[in-house]
Write a structure and sequence with these properties.
Strand content: 15-25%
CATH class: Alpha Beta
Helix content: 40-55%
Number of strands: 5
Distance between the termini: 17 Å
Shape: globular
Order of helices and strands: EHEHEHEHEH
Radius of gyration: 14 Å
Largest sheet: 5 strands, parallel
Length: about 140
Amino acid sequence: MTQTVNVLVVEDNEYYNNLIFNALQQSIHFVKRKMKFKLILHSFVDSFDCMKKIESREFIDNDVIAFVDYNMDNGISGAQIIRLLKKENSNTLAVLLSQSRAVEERSTQNNYDFYVIKDTFAPALCRLYLDQYIENKFL
């Protein structure tokens, strides 16, 4: 049976969500020939939709790498999403995205694995984290 890796992009800014999603998609095309696993990309602009998907336990038996915005517009924080993901699936790697360095400093109690400042380099950094994750886990 082929192992599945779910890649989640949780970003309420649709433009920025698309930037990150497209960068990650390029990463998949690069390693596609070597893959011995199934990589599924999920994009969420609404954190409620993401929470429902996590609570449905769809990701429980698969590896997950999540790129999550810290400040979501509808009251659910990125930290809450990451906590729920890691509670449901211990095989989750979480990358927290934020425009502020202050979030990193006051978020020491959060469960994220990496922190990325949302600037012009963020999509490339996210792609790098995904490439490294794939290389470490499967290649």
